[in-house]
Fold this protein.
Amino acid sequence: MQEKAIVRNYFNTVGFERWRRIYGNEEVNFVQKDIRLGHARTVETVLQWLGDPSGLRICDAGCGVGSLSLPLAARGAQVFASDISEQMVNEARRRQQMELGSTDNPQFQVLDLEELTGEYDVVVCLDVMIHYPEADALRMLRHLTGLAKSRLLFSFAPKTPWLTLLKKVGEFFPGPSKTTRAYQHREATLVSHLTEWGWKVQQRQTIQSRFYFAWLLDLVR
Ligand code: SAH
């Protein structure tokens, strides 16, 4: 599929460099700093919502460099993390080695989330849907619901006027990395499909700064 090839290529090249820095702690520009802090709040919120995850089998779909997977594993969850980008996974493994030493938890692999199989107590998918148009996002969510025994947490970028404007002026993906588009989704549309599939929203949180937008949903069967 066209969109996926673009996204994979982006996160293996310019996107990898950009996001590796944003999801790290070296010096970045003020837009990237703002995105870094916003994203950290998303991760923090998920960690809070999950409480003590020890013993849970957690699937982190589109895990990036492991920003959520690593703290989850450190807290005792059994984490199955995957990402479509080999570069992101390599970086995640490097951080795993640095932060957790020699361990096979999280278990990282390079895989399109639509090829994931198995059953998990919780499936998490953060800041991935923004890279896909609505039809793709819905198909991906449908697949993720099939992997989750009881709980699904995911984020998306909302259709808000400010984000629409940022997207227009290209601030959301500044510099040479404008090669992927930011897709915004209507919460009502996503939720109505999830409801049809037997899920209900038990918590939601909007995380918003100047350049970072994530609506975070916590769903249960
Ligand atoms: N969830 C991580 C990373 C977010 S960046 C975090 O919040 O820290 C988005 C990530 O999604 C990138 O690493 C990208 O490679 C990955 N991704 C995009 N499409 C994907 C797909 N179809 N399957 C798996 N991963 C995907």
Q: What stands out?
A: DSSP finds eight helices and seven strands in the chain. Strands lie at 57-61, 78-83, 107-110, 120-125, 148-156, 200-208, 213-220. Residues 2-220 form a domain with the Rossmann fold fold (CATH 3.40.50.150).
